[in-house]
Amino acid sequence: MAKDVQPPHVEEHPPAAEQPRDDVRTPPARPPGQRVDLLLNRIVHFLVALFLFVLAIQLMKKGAQAIAPRLQGTFPFDNGVSTLGLGWLGAYLVLSG
After folding, report:
1. What is d(CA 91, CA 20) in angstroms, rounded to the nearest whole number?
2. What CA–CA distances, in Å, run from 62 to 57, 65, 97?
């Protein structure tokens, strides 16, 4: 006679409480019009930031064009490796505090 072997009884966890917890707050639902306003606001801020970033790059490029003839052929700028090394050293000095 073979006995039916049953797995040991596993107790299930009780269901979560129906009431929300006090320490967790969910943001209130926004109406669709307010969501669109928030999205447009973020897009406008992103475009302004992108414009200012490109403007800053262009200004640096113009400033570097003015001194480029004087720097060509000098020691730290005569090839790419030494320029990279000088940039790394300058960043190290500035960011080290």
Report:
1. 51
2. 9, 5, 29
Using the structure block, give the residue that is written with the tokens 């050293």.
89
Cα 48 off chain centre by:
17
Q: What is the reported pLDDT for 43? A: 97
Work out the percent of the chain whose per-residue pLDDT is above 90. Answer: 34
Q: How far apart, in whole angstroms, are the C-alpha atoms of residue 94 and residue 97?
A: 6
* 25-39 per-position pLDDT tens digit: 777 777 877 888 999
Please check the confidence at residue 2 and state whether its pLDDT lies above 60. no
- CA 50 to chain CA mean position, Å: 15
Taking each continuous run of H as one helix and of E as one strand, the counts in the chain are: 2, 0
Answer yes or no: is pLDDT of 22 > 90: no
CA–CA dist 37, 14 (Å, integer): 43
Measured between its terminal Cα atoms, the distance across the chain in Å is 82
